[in-house]
């Protein structure tokens, strides 16, 4: 039979309120009493009522983390970083993967509110729908702190990588190596600033943007990169380099080229974005724009902890931009050969 708090108090020779203070980590309890109560709790295998404690403490010590796709190495790693950082500060993490589906976005955010999460870290689609926006507003209205990787959410603090500058640096590197027919594979599942950076770099060097060299795919997976490259080749437009919106897209594109007898980097140079761990293991090793995932995860947690320590009416919206770095490996080659 399950032990009750009343039985713990009786066995320890203290009041129920003293047991409650020990469970909740309150002060005004001597070390000797704390040890005695904890010994009885262990012996009786007492388990506090989580729902009751939540109502009393108005705290669950749980944070909701919403990400688009755990099968993507980038999101798996950043989720692990965030989970470890939160654990170090006494919080558990409920991770929700939306698979880039807007209805899951709003449903998970609604669940975070209903389950009284202490806070939310939102890392899902940059193109969320009206229902998601309503749930974000509901969280804010309830005083639940929320931070994001999306800078476009009004009134929400965010952490972002410097997508545009990272892309500018990557495309500039290709141009300086002599490539001048540079294609792009991206889409709504990656930051729009990466496409903007691609366009801006070409214009800065006096190249006209050829819309036929741009392929916007639905997702951000290996398969999307593979299909994007096939679609690009189907146009018949020649290109000597390719910039992809993330590393998985680049992997898929390289696979499609390999099957078509196109060599990387001898025929086409390729650069990705993110620098996931697989990028250095891939053949050829992928040149890519490194996002410091560890730093991004830590800053998201720091922003959330700051909000948790601040009264809702005194919270301010902050934006932290994390610099990127071009990591040059084998796939970008040293110069163009047309095909």
UniProtKB/TrEMBL annotation:
<dbReference type="Pfam" id="PF13377">
    <property type="entry name" value="Peripla_BP_3"/>
</dbReference>
<dbReference type="InterPro" id="IPR001387">
    <property type="entry name" value="Cro/C1-type_HTH"/>
</dbReference>
<dbReference type="InterPro" id="IPR046335">
    <property type="entry name" value="LacI/GalR-like_sensor"/>
</dbReference>
<dbReference type="InterPro" id="IPR000843">
    <property type="entry name" value="HTH_LacI"/>
</dbReference>
<dbReference type="InterPro" id="IPR028082">
    <property type="entry name" value="Peripla_BP_I"/>
</dbReference>
<keyword id="KW-0805">Transcription regulation</keyword>
<feature type="domain" description="HTH lacI-type">
    <location>
        <begin position="3"/>
        <end position="57"/>
    </location>
</feature>
<dbReference type="GO" id="GO:0000976">
    <property type="term" value="F:transcription cis-regulatory region binding"/>
</dbReference>
<keyword id="KW-0238">DNA-binding</keyword>
<keyword id="KW-0804">Transcription</keyword>
<dbReference type="GO" id="GO:0003700">
    <property type="term" value="F:DNA-binding transcription factor activity"/>
</dbReference>
<dbReference type="InterPro" id="IPR010982">
    <property type="entry name" value="Lambda_DNA-bd_dom_sf"/>
</dbReference>
<dbReference type="Pfam" id="PF00356">
    <property type="entry name" value="LacI"/>
</dbReference>
<protein>
    <submittedName>
        <fullName>LacI family transcriptional regulator</fullName>
    </submittedName>
</protein>
<feature type="domain" description="HTH cro/C1-type">
    <location>
        <begin position="4"/>
        <end position="51"/>
    </location>
</feature>
